[in-house]
Amino acid sequence: QFPFGRRLPCDIYWHGVSFHDSNIFSGQVNKFPGMTETVRKITLSRAMRTMRDLFPLEYNFYPRSWILPEELPLFVAEVRTMKDSNPSWKPTFIVKPDGGCQGDGIYLIKDPSDIRLTGSIQSRPAVVQEYICKPLLVDKLKFDIRLYVLLGLLKSLEPLEIYIAKDGLSRFCTEPYQEPTLKNLHQVFMHLTNYSLNIHSGNFIHSASANTGSKRTFSSILCRLSSRGADVKKLWSDIISLVIKTIIALTPELKVYYQSDIPAGKPGPTCFQILGFDILLMKDLKPVLLEVNANPSMRIEHEQELSPGVFENVPSPVDEKVKVAVIRDTLRLMDPQKKKRKDTQLAHPALAQAEVSPWQGQDELSGPSAQADPCVVLFCRCQSPERAPGASEELPDAAPGPEAALPSLCLKQVFPKYARHFSYLRLVDRVAALFIRFLGVKGTTKLGPTGFRTFIRNCKLSNSNFSMAAVDILYIDITRRWNSMGIDHKESGMCLQAFVEAFFCLAQKKYKALPLHKQVLSLIELCECRLAALHGKRLVWGCG
Ligand code: ADP
C-alpha cells in the first residue's frame, strides 16, 4: 500500500474501487477504465436491449427493461398492448434506481401507474423491469447466485479472455416465498435476496456449513439439484453462455473507455477485473441475469451482535471458501513470471503444442467449435503444474514451482475457448471498432460531426438518396436526443450508443428486406471492405 504516493512501477496494481491512476505505464491493473459506468443498471439495460434487438432468442436471459423517466410513456404503452393481447397476464415489475446497490431504493409494482414519480425518480433515473415471479425455491425460499468472473488480461481487450469461478455464493431470502400480490409486494425479506437487507431479519441464519443457512455455496445447491435429478450440466452450460453473451454486450462500450484512457501505441498497463454476476434461477432452471457488479464485495467475515449494540467481526467460512480461491487464482493467472513464460512459448509455439489442456474432454458446450484451440492450450499449460504425457523437458518452467503445493485452479477459462460458438454475436463490437477509428482525437469517447462525416465519406455511404445534408441532420437528431438523456455531460458529441443507433438506421435504409442482424452485418462488411480498399490505395500512393 502506498498511502503517500508511489515512486517505483509495480507488476500488479490492486485498486480498491475503480481504475483511477493515470500514472501507470506498465504492469497489470485490476480494474478496467469505465467498467463501473458500463455495468450501471441503465447502461447494462441499454446494451442488453441493443443485443436483444439483433438477436432476440440469444438475449432472452435478461428481463425486459425500460429506462425511467425517459421511457415511461413507452413502458405504459407496451404494458397496455401486452395486457390487451393477453388479458390473463398479471405482471409484476421491479423498479431499481440507477447506480443503486444492496437493494437500495428498490420496490415492486403491479401497474405502471404505481411508479413513484415524486422525489427520487425525478432526481434519480431508474430501470423498471419485469419481475421474475416464479423463481426456483430451495427450502421454500427465494435465492440468487453470485458468480465471480475474471475478465481481460490482454491489451485492448483483444483477444478477450473470460474465466468463471467454479463455485459461487447462494444468497437466501429470510421469509418463505409467495408469488407477488398487492399484500406482500413490500415484503423485502420475501422478494429481495440481498445479503445486506436480509442480515437485518430475525430469521437470518449464519452457518459455518456450506449447505445450510442464509448464505451457502452454489456447489451445495448444485448437489441438491443433482440429487433431485436436475440436469446440472445443462445448467452450467446455460450459465457459461449467459456470462459470455453478457460480456460480449459490454465490451464495445469498454473498448471506447479503454482507448480513451490507454491510447493504442502508447505505453500503458494491461487490465483485468473480477466481476460479480448476480443470477436468478427460474423454476425451470433457466438462469436470468439480474446485474453485473464491477466491485463485488470480497469480505470474508461478517458482523455479529454479541450483546445489544456490541458488534464483532467473525470469520465467514462460506465466503472464505469461495472468495479466497477467486483472489488466489486471479493472482496466479496474473503472475508476471508466468506471463514472461507465456510470451516465450508464443515465440516457440511448437513447444507449447506438446501440452494437453486439463479441461480437454470436459467441454460443457457441445459442437465442433468447442474443442480447445492452441491459445487455450497455451494458457492451460501455464496454469497447471501437472505435465501431460510426453511434454517436453526443455520447457522453460520444467522445474516444479511453488504452485505445485496449491489447489487446482477454481477459475475456468471459457473464452476464447468457446469463441467460435459466439463470434457471430460480436456485431456491435465491429461497429464500435468503426466508431473508435473515426474518433480522431486521442482521449475522447465521443464522435464530432466531422468524424461522422468522414466515416460516411470514407465508407461511401452517401449518394443521391442520402445527401451529406441528410447525414448532418441524422447526426444532429440522434446526438441531441442521446445527450438530452445521457448521464455523461462532460463531453459533447456522439456517444457510442448514439452511433450504434445511427448505424442501425443506415443499415435498415440500405438493406430493407433483411432481418436487422443481417442488415447490420451487411453494412459492417461493406464499411470494412471499403475502408480496407481505401487503406490499400493510400499505401500504394504512399509508395508511389
Ligand atoms: P442491487 O444492486 O440494489 O442489489 P439488484 O438488481 O441486484 O439490485 O436487485 C436486488 C434484488 O432484487 C436481487 O438480488 C433479486 O433478489 C431481486 N430482483 C432484482 N431484479 C429482479 C427481477 N427482475 N425479478 C425478480 N427478482 C429480482
TrEMBL record:
Chain segments annotated as coiled-coil in the UniProt record: none
Keyword annotations of the record: ATP-binding, Ligase, Nucleotide-binding
GO terms for biological process, alphabetical: microtubule cytoskeleton organization
SUPFAM superfamilies membership: Glutathione synthetase ATP-binding domain-like
Record has Lipid metabolism as a keyword: no
The organism's place on the tree of life at top rank: Eukaryota
InterPro entries: TTL/TTLL_fam
Region of interest (Disordered), residue spans: 337-368
A molecular-function term among this protein's GO annotations: tubulin-glutamic acid ligase activity
GO cellular component, one term: ciliary basal body
PANTHER family per record: TUBULIN POLYGLUTAMYLASE, TUBULIN POLYGLUTAMYLASE TTLL11
Protein name: TTL11 polyglutamylase
Species per Swiss-Prot/TrEMBL record: Nesospiza acunhae
